[in-house]
Design a protein that fits this description.
Elements (H helix, E strand, L loop, with lengths): L2 E3 L9 H7 L8 E3 L7 H5 L6 H13 L5 H12 L10 E5 L2 E5 L9 H19 L3 E6 L3 H10 L5 E8 L5 H8 L6 E6 L3 H13 L1 H7 L1 E2 L6 H17 L7 E6 L4 H12 L3 E8 L4 H8 L1 E3 L19 H8 L4 H14 L1 E3 L2 H10 E5 L2 H15 L5 H11 L7 E5 L7 H8 L20 E3 L3 H13 L1
Parallel strand pairs: 4-14, 5-6, 5-8, 6-7, 7-15, 9-10, 9-14, 10-13
Antiparallel strand pairs: 1-2, 3-4, 11-12
Helix pairs in contact: 3-4, 3-10, 4-5, 5-6, 5-10, 6-7, 10-11, 13-15, 16-17, 16-18
This protein binds pyridoxal-5'-phosphate (PLP) and the ligand N[C@@H](CCOP(=O)(O)O)C(=O)O.
InterPro entries: Ser/Thr_deHydtase_PyrdxlP-BS, Thr_synth_N, Thr_synth_N_sf, Thr_synthase-like, Threonine_Synthase, TrpB-like_PALP, TrpB-like_PALP_sf
Keywords: Amino-acid biosynthesis, Lyase, Pyridoxal phosphate, Threonine biosynthesis
Family: Belongs to the threonine synthase family.
């Protein structure tokens, strides 16, 4: 299995090389040269299997010969052993033909744990072979950072630097990043928004001198391994509702487009997904792009679903690559236009292709609060604000095909927003009971590439 860049001008890599590389050297994102197909029989055989076995069967064709079957099975087993639910990703019914896929039973209470726990194990195995150190730099609007720190803290051979937008993550998210005591993790509060954090991370990858000298690696969903791990729960959820004999649709609370792109990959592999519905908050660039054909940034507006406060949605590039017939030069041109003018028009052919798979909707702040209140009153289920954005949009797309909305985080990560909607503060699990009394360790940084690079160099030299 080979991996190619969405901009068509970077070296072709194997799975483990693509994983350790992160962003391609032409600025693009790695994708598999071909998407492996699963037959109806392969998919039917997943029904009733445990999550780990499903994960092995779905991901195995993407790995090539980077790991033996036994190594890969052991890696998967270790990755999900710490999850707080036997099913790992349980499905609960929210209403007639509407289901919630609970993805918040991992160690940091968000869907990011599914991928981050796995790539923590994959990195460890790869680094042990190579005997080298790497420097991971990541950008977060709250959840990727805490999941990455949890997965990599204390790991031999790895330093982790996480840039988060100062004052724009929830207190639980911030404390998950700033309270671990391990000296290989570094929480950096940047004066700016998530897009600034993500742009500085990409700048570091595009500064080859810096990139090579610190052996830079990335754990954002620019890393293909992140997306791959998320493909699995689309299969586990769909087969438990009768796939491949019964199609399903998914609604996905969306920001950086990584999670929904994983659903797109599952569909391309043969999983009968009728529609993938993009649910955005008031930062609705993806919804507007689908509706109008123009991808236009507008500046981030802070919301009660802060992890989705994103305008430059990294993985949309992967979807554009396919929609433009895998024409890397065309994608490179769009991305240059985005950098220079803040937007671009999607060609008619490409927007038609995207609309065959994706629908979209936007939930306002009031609609999000009302959805949290409505779901609680009707079912007793407490939704996190991101999940509520998904549920609100999903409710407008219900039909004869079962709809599965991804519940992307635990409500206790966003107690203020939940309390404002239902008057109750959801409790953190007992293992996190002391989160609010642990001392914090954080470094404030300006939105300045050179300053951040020298801080990284200094810290890894000590
Ligand atoms: C809780 C939560 N929901 C939804 C999203 C959006 O996911 P994606 O960025 O993969 O579109 C995020 C951030 O990634 C998140 O943390
Ligand atoms: N919502 C994310 C933003 C980063 O997305 P990623 O999936 O590319 O890592 C977060 O919580 O940090």
């Amino acid at each position: 299995m080979k991996y190619i860049s969405t901009r068509g001008a970077a070296p072709v890599l194997t799975f483990d090389q693509a994983m350790m590389t992160g962003l391609a050297r032409d600025g693009g994102l790695y994708v598999p040269e071909t998407i492996p197909a699963m037959t109806q029989t392969d998919i039917a055989a997943l029904a009733g299997l445990g999550y780990e076995e499903t994960a092995f069967r779905v991901m195995r064709p993407f790995i090539g010969d980077c790991f033996t079957d036994q190594e890969f099975q052991d890696i998967i087993a270790r990755a999900y052993a710490g999850f707080g639910h036997a099913a790992r990703a349980p499905l609960v019914q929210l209403g007639p033909n509407h289901f919630l896929l609970e993805l918040f039973h991992g160690p940091t209470l968000a869907f990011k744990d599914f991928a981050m726990q796995l790539i923590g194990q994959l990195f460890q195995a790869a680094l042990q072979r190579q005997g080298e150190r790497v420097t991971i730099v990541g950008a977060t609007s709250g959840d990727t950072g805490s999941a990455a720190i949890e997965a990599f803290r204390g790991l031999e051979g790895v330093d982790v630097f996480i840039l988060f937008p100062d004052g724009r993550v929830s207190e639980v998210q911030r404390r998950q990043m700033t309270t671990p005591v391990e000296t290989n993790v570094h929480a950096l509060a940047l004066a700016g928004d998530f897009d600034d954090c993500q742009a500085r991370v990409k700048d570091m990858f595009n500064d080859f001198d810096f990139r090579d000298s610190v052996r830079l690696a990335g754990v954002n969903s620019i890393n293909w391994a992140r997306v791959l791990a998320q493909v699995v729960y689309y299969f586990s959820a769909a087969t438990s509702l009768g796939a491949p004999h019964r199609p399903v649709s998914f609604t996905v609370p969306t920001g950086n487009f990584g999670d929904i792109f994983a659903g797109y990959v599952a569909r391309r592999m043969g999983l009968p997904i009728e529609r993938l519905v993009i649910a955005t908050n008031q930062n609705d660039i993806l919804h507007r792009a689908l509706k109008t054909g123009r991808y236009q940034t507008e500046g981030v507006r802070p919301s009660i679903s802060p992890s989705m406060d994103i305008q430059v949605s990294s993985n949309f590039e992967r979807a554009l690559f396919d929609a433009y017939g895998r024409d890397g030069a065309a994608v490179a041109q769009l991305m240059q236009e985005l950098r220079q003018t803040g937007g671009f028009r999607i060609s008619q052919g490409a927007i038609d292709v995207l609309r065959e798979t994706f629908l979209s909707g936007r939930a306002s702040e009031d609609e999000t609060r009302a959805t949290i209140a409505g779901a609680f009153a009707a079912t007793g289920e407490i939704l996190c604000p991101h999940t509520a954005v998904g549920v609100n949009v999903a409710e407008r797309h219900l039909g004869p095909v079962p709809m599965i909305t991804l519940a992307t985080a635990h409500p206790a990560k966003f107690p203020d927003a939940v309390e404002a909607a239902i008057g109750l503060r959801p409790a953190l699990p007992p293992r996190m009971a002391d989160l609010f009394v642990r001392p914090e360790r954080v470094t404030r940084v300006a939105n300045d590439l050179a300053g951040i690079e020298s801080l990284v160099r200094e810290r890894i030299a000590n």
